[in-house]
Amino acid sequence: MEETTLSLPSVSRMVSVDVLDNTHALARDLATQQCEHGTLVLAYEQTAARGQNGRGWHAGRGGVYFTLLLQPEKEVRVTDGLCRRAAEAAAQALQNLFHVKAKAKRGGDIQAWDGKNKSWKKIGVARVEVFTSEDRKIWIEVGMDVNVNNRPETAADTSVKKLLGREIDPEWVLQETLEEFLMRYAQWRLSAED
């Protein structure tokens, strides 16, 4: 486990792991160890990635897989609005960086337009959960998995590399996605929406 710095003011600590079962599990462990608000867990490969409804898969090397831990300043009952904002942030990041037509779907799926096959394909997923740590602190866990240079799992999936025909730096996607999400998180904190 390696600690690194990231030039984002809202990320207080970044824990980077080469191969991990999933970022969610490590983030939960860190929350029980009294980590700070804004702790980011990043993996380059997940052997037991976790999506919506607990669906698992192998997230191959070359993607961007992270979980961000946040402590809300307001009571949180449901996180649908924040999950939608997280998926929108990833879609917007792909549009900003690569002019890829992308959109957020209900439930946290992120889709990109595959012009060659003339269809929308899944390029990532966002998930948001609220939990209470052993020390009774409330946490929001924001997880995102985005296919960047990795091979898509099924014919219904795609990656940035597949769409552009070349490899790109996954750190661009991480940085831009976090910036887009943190803007939306600031708006969500000020809104009455859950």
In short:
The protein has 194 residues and is of the alpha+beta class.
Please describe what this structure looks like.
There is one protein chain. With 194 residues, the chain is an alpha+beta fold. It has a single domain, classed as 2-Layer Sandwich (BirA Bifunctional Protein, domain 2), CATH 3.30.930. 28% of the residues lie in helices and 34% in strands. It has helices at residues 23-32, 80-98, 160-164, 170-190; strands at 2-4, 13-20, 39-50, 56-59, 64-70, 102-104, 109-114, 119-132, 138-146. A hairpin with an 8-residue loop joins strand 1 (2-4) and strand 2. The protein starts with a strand and ends with a helix.
